[in-house]
Amino acid sequence: xxxxxxxxxxxxxxxxxxxxxxxxxxxxxxxxxxxxxxxxxxxxxxxxxxxxxxxxxxxxxxxxxxxxxxxxxxxxxxxxxxxxxxxxxxxxxxxxxxxxxxxxxxxxxxxxxxxxxxxxxxxxxxxxxxxxxxxxxxxxxxxxxxxxxxxxxxxxxxxxxxxxxxxxx
Length: 169
Fold this sequence. Notes:
There is one protein chain. By secondary structure, the protein is α+β, with helices and mostly antiparallel strands. The chain has two domains: 6-88, no CATH class; 97-161, Winged helix-like DNA-binding domain superfamily/Winged helix DNA-binding domain (Arc Repressor Mutant, subunit A, Orthogonal Bundle), CATH 1.10.10.10. 47% of the residues lie in helices and 18% in strands. It has eight helices and five strands, in the order H-E-E-H-E-E-H-E-H-H-H-H-H. It has helices at residues 6-11, 28-43, 71-76, 97-104, 108-118, 123-130, 134-148, 153-161, and strands spanning 16-19, 22-25, 52-56, 59-68, 82-88. The protein has a three-stranded antiparallel β-sheet, with helices on one face. It has a two-stranded antiparallel ribbon with strand order 1-2. Helix 4 (97-104) crosses helix 5 (108-118). The two termini are 13 Å apart.
């Protein structure tokens, strides 16, 4: 391991650590998978196509994956051949409301509601957090359904999940 950004640093602590310059998982089976994955990626022999699931306190909530560096990547991260990134399933950020607005022509209010619903919140919780009535939220949700071509919250969440970029921790 050479460098990591602030979001990656936030993952270190009780479940991930850096020991002797290497990222290690506290869970032993997860660490064995992670170390094998990193060795294969760094050696260039073959980068496995499936990511590594890291168990945290009994739950598979962290996913490690690797991306080969392109010429642009080498310019941004000199000295490396692969980029290891993590997806934290417990702390994924909300969808970018501006991206939602641009993609589906949603108003700011509709994009805020869609972002909350895509994160798994129900309409009651989302409306309370946004400071709007449930009726207003339902009206906005109907508009979101019409603009996205969806009919149910689960269908909307599945569609919007495709807009998520990997969390480059």
